[in-house]
Design brief:
Layout: H1 24-31, E1 42-48, H2 52-63, E2 68-72, H3 95-108, E3 112-115, E4 117-123, E5 132-137, E6 143-153, E7 157-160, E8 175-176, H4 179-182, E9 191-194, H5 199-207, E10 214-217, H6 226-234, E11 238-240, E12 244-250, E13 253-259, E14 264-266, E15 269-272, E16 275-278, E17 291-292, E18 299-300, E19 315-317, H7 328-371, E20 383-385, E21 388-390, H8 392-399, H9 412-418, E22 425-429, H10 435-442, E23 446-451, H11 454-467, H12 469-472, E24 475-479, E25 492-498, H13 504-516, E26 518-529, H14 550-554, E27 562-577, E28 580-593
Parallel strand pairs: 1-2, 1-6, 2-3, 6-19, 8-15, 9-10, 9-15, 10-11, 22-23, 22-25, 23-24, 25-26
Antiparallel strand pairs: 4-5, 5-6, 7-16, 12-13, 13-14, 17-18, 20-21, 26-28, 27-28
Helix pairs in contact: 2-3, 2-7, 8-11
This protein binds flavin-adenine dinucleotide.
């Protein structure tokens, strides 16, 4: 088939077109080793911070068939605690076990979890579309740069305890802050609340729900007014004045609060409100600064309370970073919301791009019918990329219209490579309107032309009958989706594929399968658009991830079994440039199977 390049263009400002496809997951994995490469894959989303919030966002995105990478430094806020309480269905699970399971779930849907610290984020978006680079330092000090269309940031916060000796060593055990997390575990003990500010009053009344033996240590940090004192007294809460110096620990158990004057008040647990600081360093370059939380308990980075959308387009926030009151299940829920909102944003952008592409395609079609250039879609396979669904329906639609998409001439590389060969049996993959298959048949080949689209085959059959009824009798037309069909082994003297641009996950397997279909002494001829065409004035879908080079093709054919007779990039002129004729380059590889 005479393939070249005119197709719905989507390299508009809202191109949004690199990924988002089921096939991309393996593809994304492959690129993970190619960091620091400007052609490194631009993931649909990078999630910075893989705690409950970030992993929930990633799970939502991976299940939405988004290509998502989580970068996590592995220090969740609740790491000192034995268990996560109040998480329905998993109550008491160890914090790191919950995250281990979360990582596995994300990975089971194709998400990638990278251990490391994101140190900086920069905006790279083009033409108003968001886009980011994320600098990552691995635990071994190695560095990589990830690219992302969108971001979720869920880096959590840092708790600062008041300067009381011994407190931090007991943190998360018998020094606690959250009654819903640990109230049950310290129930009925003598609980001392160490005052740090106004929140301590609130905390004291809450902890009274779990014990009738509660003491509030004012610690020179709060001055209960008469109303406060009345409430505390009514609930049987004692108030101890004076600064707290330390906690007493015996046999690995907290047993008392020691005042600066040396007095020890026996308690079995301490509740203390921390001062929280949003872990927002990574957002500084984007201009998203931490700001005081209205409660006075510390800092947060502001975001929409429902969706997590930050002030920066393309960046969603989740979990404790934006709400210090979130327990694990709430942090997880906010991650789900952020993931869903991010996905919706991509869906909207992709829909805009698709509409624009259809409009551009219509305009191109008008010019094409006037100039009848050689033109070709980007591939002959059902896959999606960046919201463009190149499935059977796409190709049926593509060939379902009146008139001809292509010139009917054979591809130049086919003519160059095959003209001197003795005709035999040929298999033409992605035969489209039949240009190549008809040319082969007219030279005496017995041809099987295959295409994913029945409409294409109908057109090709009609064209063959019209052009040369005798040659048409040597062509069999078969409908196959090459990603799900294996041609019969060792059956053809020639197997050709022109401009079939598949995702990497399918490409090698399919091309090797074409080789398997060749008889000893026969040829496989694979031709594709060269990566450099993306910078040319030709009509090209901007999907570098679908392109391949000469070396990649050559590597598919075992030198013991194959002789590479052609491996080069060839220039040719096409009439189908944006502004008229343009120079394009084709990757051409022909291999001959050993006898
Ligand atoms: C002692 C203690 C016990 C608790 N117990 C409970 C409980 O029993 N039940 C409950 O529901 N809640 C509990 N909580 C609250 C719970 O910790 C939070 O709700 C939860 O951790 C919030 O999840 P998150 O994903 O927002 O943040 P985190 O869980 O803190 O996760 C943030 C992640 O981001 C990573 N990160 C940070 N910066 C970067 C960066 N620049 N690059 C890469 N990664 C980064 C961190 O290493 C971390 O892994 C407890 C809190 C504390 C302090």
């Amino acid at each position: 088939m005479t393939h070249d390049t005119t197709h719905p263009r989507t390299d508009s400002p809202e191109t949004e077109n690199a990924h988002a496809h089921a096939h991309a997951h393996a593809h994304a994995h492959a690129h993970e080793t190619e960091h620091e490469n400007e052609h490194a894959i631009e993931h649909d989303a990078v999630v910075i911070g893989g705690g409950a919030a970030g992993l929930s966002a990633a799970l939502t995105l991976a299940r939405a068939r988004r290509d998502v990478v989580v970068v996590d430094a592995g220090e969740p806020r609740n790491a000192p605690a034995d268990g996560v309480h109040g998480f329905l269905g998993l109550d008491g699970i160890a914090p790191l076990e919950l995250l281990r399971r979360g990582r596995a779930e994300v990975e089971s849907y194709g998400g990638i979890v990278v251990s490391g610290t994101a140190t900086d984020v920069r905006r790279t978006g083009r033409g108003g579309a968001p886009g980011f680079t994320v600098e990552v330092t691995a635990p071994d000090g190695g560095h990589r740069t990830l690219r992302a269309r969108r971001l979720v940031v869920s880096t959590g916060l840092v708790d600062a305890l008041p300067p009381v000796d011994g407190l931090s060593a007991r943190w998360g055990r018998d020094v606690v802050h959250c009654p819903y997390c640990h109230g049950w575990e310290v129930r009925d003990r003598a609980i001392g609340v160490i005052g740090t500010g106004p929140m301590s009053m609130h905390q004291t009344l809450l902890f009274r729900q779990w014990s009738d033996d509660v003491t509030l240590f004012a610690n020179d940090r709060l001055a209960p007014d008469d109303g406060d004192r009345a409430r505390l007294e009514a609930r049987g809460v004692r108030i101890v004045e004076g600064p707290v110096a330390s906690v007493r620990v015996e046999d690995d158990r907290l047993t008392g609060v020691v005042l600066a004057d040396g007095t020890t008040v026996p308690v079995g647990a301490v509740a203390v409100a921390t001062s929280v600081a949003a872990r927002s360093d990574v957002l500084v370059s984007l201009g998203l600064d931490a700001e005081p939380h209205p409660s006075g308990m510390g800092t947060i980075v502001a975001a929409d309370p429902v969706t997590g959308q930050s002030a920066e387009p393309g960046v969603w926030l989740a979990g404790n970073l934006t709400n210090p009151g979130h327990q694990v299940v709430m942090a997880a829920a906010s991650g789900v919301m952020a993931g869903a909102a991010l996905n919706m944003d991509l869906v909207s952008a992709e829909t805009r791009a698709a509409v624009e592409a259809v409009e551009t395609w219509s305009a191109d079609a008008t010019r094409r019918s006037a100039t009848a250039p050689e033109t070709a879609p980007p591939s002959q396979s059902p896959h999606t990329t960046g919201g463009e669904l190149f499935d059977a329906a796409y190709w049926e639609d593509r060939y379902g219209t009146e008139g001809w998409a292509w010139s009917g001439d054979p591809n130049a590389a086919l003519v160059d490579e095959v003209a001197a060969l003795t005709p035999g049996r040929a298999l033409d993959i992605g035969s489209g309107e039949g240009g190549d298959a008809i040319w082969l048949a007219r030279r005496g080949w017995t041809v099987t032309g295959t295409d994913i689209a029945v409409n294409a085959l109908d057109k090709a059959r009609a064209r063959a009958e019209e052009v040369d009824a005798e040659a048409a009798g040597r062509i069999t037309w078969e409908q196959h989706d090459i990603t799900g069909w294996t041609p019969p082994r060792a059956s053809y003297d020639l197997v050709t594929s022109h401009f079939m641009h598949l995702p990497a996950a399918d490409r090698d397997r399919v091309f090797r399968g074409l080789g398997e279909a060749v008889v000893p002494g026969g040829s496989v001829l694979i031709v594709g658009h060269d990566l450099s065409d993306l910078d040319s004035d030709a009509h090209r879908l901007h999907h570098p991830e679908l392109m391949f080079g000469v070396d990649e093709l050559v590597a598919l054919f075992d030198p013991v079994e194959w002789t590479i007779v052609t491996a080069e990039t060839r220039e040719r002129e096409t009439a189908a440039g944006h502004e008229g004729p343009a120079t394009v380059r084709d990757v051409v590889v022909r291999a001959v199977r050993a006898l």
